Amino acid sequence: MTEDLARGSRRTVEVRPTAAQAAYLRRGLGETGGKLPLFDRDGQRYRVQTIRTCITQGWAKPWFSNSIMPDWLVCRLPKAGRAAVAEAPGPPTIAMPGAAAYSGAPRIRGHARELQLYLERAL
Fold first, then answer.
1. What does the alpha-carbon distance between residue 76 and residue 24 come to, in Å, rounded to a whole number?
2. pTM
3. What is the pLDDT of residues 79-97, one digit of tens each?
4. What is the mean pLDDT of the chain?
5. Average pLDDT of 15-34?
6. Nearest to 66 by CA among 43, 35, 97
7. In this structure, are residues 51 and 119 in contact, taking their beta carbons and an 8 Å threshold?
């Protein structure tokens, strides 16, 4: 391995988005112009590191600067981001009896935790 690198050979490493990055990028698929959100579905702000890594990899592009909140990164989803999301495995689907299938890893808070415990006992 080190001999190959010493001779000047180049290895191509395929980089795929992490689960957090893929979740962020997927949110732009249904938006007009591919606008990526500032907040997740729970109302929590996406980590700046997640957004910056997506920009560095070419999966997200800065769209415009926000004069009211200059530290917020408003981005859009380019073709490379769409391709990365298409290749990334989606979140698991959890089937709940009597309810529609829920896709994604839930954040368990308050009554949701009680519901999860109830469903675990019921199954």
1. 11
2. 0.61
3. 999 999 887 666 554 555 5
4. 77
5. 89
6. 35
7. no
